[in-house]
Amino acid sequence: MQRYRFGSGEYKYFAYPLPAIIQQLREQMYPLLTPLANDWMQRLGVDLKYPSELETFLSQCHSKEQRRPTPLILRYDKGGYNTLHQDIYGEIFFPFQVVFMLNRPGTDYEGGELVFVEQVPRAQSRAEVIIPSVGDAIVFTTNFRPVKGSKGYYRTRMKHGVSPVKNGLRYTMGIIFHDAT
């Protein structure tokens, strides 16, 4: 991460063919999230409809030269963190991703909270910090979310990161549904 100024830690992307459990998670979670993704696009007036099958969606990614898988494992040692960012790796992206907590806060590590920042238009940004436990899966937006305003829905950009780990080792696995260039 330091090489690219993304923070301090280590991440490793899986290659195709993905490990069976990761492939299954990706294939089973995608169709559960697709109705909400399509609802968000409709609310925002975006002329885009996500297909119900992951394979079809990945074909769209591949047609735009986005062929590298994006599921990954992340490791943070003491002092490790991840800067605020969005996981968009090309023209096509899915509006949700999932992070799985692989060890216990307070036991295996301290600090390392998951941080979300909403960039509110014409206002100050708002942060939300959560401390998920081992086995938790957190679904969050990759880029933006719809917010109801006085004149209908508008986009608010979201970024995510990890606060510094104070002690121990923190491990997570990320499932991102779109492929990268």
Number of domains: 1
N-C termini distance? 19 Å
Radius of gyration (CA) equals 17 Å
Instruction: Just give the CATH class.
Output: Mainly Beta
**Spans of 5+ residues with little confidence (pLDDT < 50)?**
none
How do the helices and strands follow one another from N- to C-terminus? EEHHEEEEEEEEEEE
Total helices: the number is: 2
Helix content: 10-25%
Strand count, sense and closure of the main sheet? 6 strands, antiparallel
Task: Tell me the fraction of residues in β-strands, as a range.
Answer: 35-45%
Please, what is the average pLDDT?
95
Count of β-strands: 13
CATH topology: Jelly Rolls
Structural class: alpha+beta
Shape: globular
CATH architecture field: Sandwich
Tell me what you see in this structure:
This protein has helices at 20-43, 54-63; strands spanning 7-8, 10-13, 72-76, 81-85, 96-101, 109-111, 114-119, 126-130, 137-141, 144-149, 152-162, 165-168, 170-176. The strands form three sheets. Strands 1, 4, 7, 8, 10 and 11 form a six-stranded antiparallel sheet that branches. The protein contains two helices and 13 strands. The protein starts with 6 loop residues before the first strand and ends in a 5-residue tail after the last strand. The longest helix is centred in the N-terminal third of the chain and has 24 residues, at 20-43. It has a single domain, classed as Jelly Rolls, CATH 2.60.120. It is of the alpha+beta class and 181 residues long.
